[in-house]
Design goal:
The protein is built from six helices and five strands; from the N terminus they run βααβααβααββ. The protein is mainly α.
Length: 138
């Protein structure tokens, strides 16, 4: 009987991507490089992106977007509550050459578009960079 689907936490994703804690990185690599399906939430993607781009690691947005896009593209990663294609498209919007959206806006857009929503009430009229039509509240 196959193992039940379990979500993967941000710390496992980060050790996999960073390899800066050798023992945990190796254990994360064995899990993620296996064929076992692993559930991934949009929150885990957001926390991973923010941590990588944040003050501790300070990795540039283009590199972070590429790392997260490649991680999301793994066949054994199962999106929980969002569409992987929408997340890929939204994260690509974080690259400077395609719009320079921020990670939060991109992931909000991915979740929204996964549910067929194309607009967002926001005071940030630059939200279109992330792929949603912004509408200012009246």
């Amino acid at each position: 009987m196959p193992d039940p689907l379990r979500a993967v936490d941000t710390n496992v994703v980060l050790w996999y991507l960073l390899s800066d804690v050798p023992d945990q990185a190796e254990r994360a690599r064995r899990l993620i490089d296996s064929e076992q399906p692993l559930g991934l939430t949009i929150i885990t993607l957001a926390e991973s992106a923010w941590t990588l781009a944040g003050p501790v690691y300070n990795i540039d947005r283009s590199t972070v977007a590429a790392l997260v896009i490649n991680f999301l593209a793994r066949e054994n990663i199962v999106a929980i509550g969002f569409d992987k294609v929408e997340a890929h498209v939204a994260l690509a919007a974080c690259l400077p050459q395609t719009g320079a959206a921020n990670f939060g806006d991109a992931l909000i857009a991915a979740c929204s578009r996964s549910e067929g929503i194309n607009g967002i009430y926001s005071f940030d009229q630059r939200f279109s960079r992330a792929g949603l039509v912004p509408v200012a509240p009246q």
